[in-house]
Design brief:
The protein is built from five helices and 19 strands. The chain is of the alpha+beta class and 302 residues long. It folds into two domains: 149 residues, Probable inorganic polyphosphate/atp-NAD kinase, domain 1 (Rossmann fold, 3-Layer(aba) Sandwich); 133 residues, Probable inorganic polyphosphate/atp-NAD kinase, domain 2 (Tumour Suppressor Smad4, Sandwich). Strands 3, 8, 9, 10, 11, 12, 13, 14, 15, 16, 17 and 18 form a twelve-stranded mixed beta sheet that branches. Strands 2-1-4-5-6 form a five-stranded parallel beta sheet, with helices on both faces. Strands 7-19 form a two-stranded antiparallel ribbon. It is globular. It starts with a strand and ends in a 13-residue tail after the last helix.
Length: 302
């Protein structure tokens, strides 16, 4: 019996209604459905007064999910997709993302396409698009204190954000560099259209095997976004006496103290997206962000 996962943002009524319809259709066709809440992928933020999260990044895999699944259908917005990525990448189950939120930049389909979507799942008419993911770890000496999987970006900054910080950054075999800025963003190509874009970084097509380091409001005009091979691990040493805040994919994070270091490396497990049709990245940029659309002059006044 074929097995399919169903990851649902249970705070959205539309997602719950769609999940029930999908479950009825697939079970009628002889599929076994394993349902999970997207909240299982929300690592959350560590309270500085408590022990840190000592779990490995693969701890978010839901009960009953394993590599025997053909795919997992995800119902929610972009935040739900980021959570589902943590839940499925370690077991290499591809995700079919259905938008029930707002922008839906990471979504493959919409609720209006639900009937066609189910038909394509039943007929196995889909392909796989693999996206780079990162393992973000916080270490003190040789001890791992916090770890999570990242699809978009890791951001490290002081609280409040408007205070300048100092960082020493080692990228692979290259000589360490010093950057003074309000913070740093380390992003994947997928994340280049998210926070890093707001910080002035370039858009990177998803098939490029690179990472991007973008300073937030850098102190020097010479400190600009840097793109480099994703084979290179990155270690960030905070050179600021106060604690810093680290945020991963907008929904997970912890405090980083002066004696800590942050290690970011490419995960051996990419996030696999199910594509129901050709995924034309420039078209997505145009539809979602208005990139590359022809300029139309405003009408003149009479």
């Amino acid at each position: 019996m074929p097995r399919v996962g169903l990851i649902v943002n249970e705070s959205k009524e539309l997602a719950l209604e769609a999940a029930l319809e999908i479950q009825l259709r697939l079970e009628k066709a002889g599929y076994e459905l394993v349902k999970a809440s997207s909240s299982g992928g929300l690592v959350g933020f560590t309270n500085p007064d408590r022990h840190l999260r000592m779990l490995s990044y693969d701890a978010c895999v839901p009960d009953g999910f394993d590599s025997s699944m053909s795919l997992a259908i995800v119902l929610g917005g972009d935040g739900t997709v980021l959570s589902a990525a943590r839940q499925t990448a370690p077991i290499q189950v591809p995700i079919l993302t259905v938008n029930t939120g707002h922008l839906g930049f990471l979504s493959e389909a919409y609720l209006a396409d639900l009937d066609n979507l189910i038909d394509q799942v039943l007929s196995s008419k889909w392909s796989i698009d693999k996206r780079t993911s990162l393992v973000v770890s916080v270490l003190r000496a040789d001890q791992f204190r916090w770890e999570a999987l990242c699809l978009n970006e890791m951001a490290l900054h002081r609280e409040p954000l408007t205070s300048m910080c100092h960082f020493e950054i080692a990228i692979g075999r290259h000589a360490p560099v010093d950057i003074s800025a309000d913070g740093l963003i380390l992003s994947t190509p997928t994340g280049s259209t998210a926070y890093a874009l707001s910080a002035g970084g370039p858009v990177i097509t998803p098939d490029c095997p690179v990472l991007q380091l973008a300073p937030i409001a850098p102190h020097s005009l010479a400190s600009r976004a840097l793109v480099f091979s994703d084979d290179e691990p990155v270690t960030i040493f905070p050179a600021t006496p106060e604690r810093l805040m680290m945020v991963v994919d907008g929904s997970a994070g912890c405090y980083v103290w002066p004696e800590d270091r942050v290690l970011i490396r490419r995960s051996e497990y990419p996030v696999q997206f199910v594509r129901l049709s050709d995924h034309e990245f420039f078209q997505v940029l145009g539809n979602k962000l208005g990139w590359g659309l022809p300029h139309v002059a405003k009408p003149g006044k009479d």
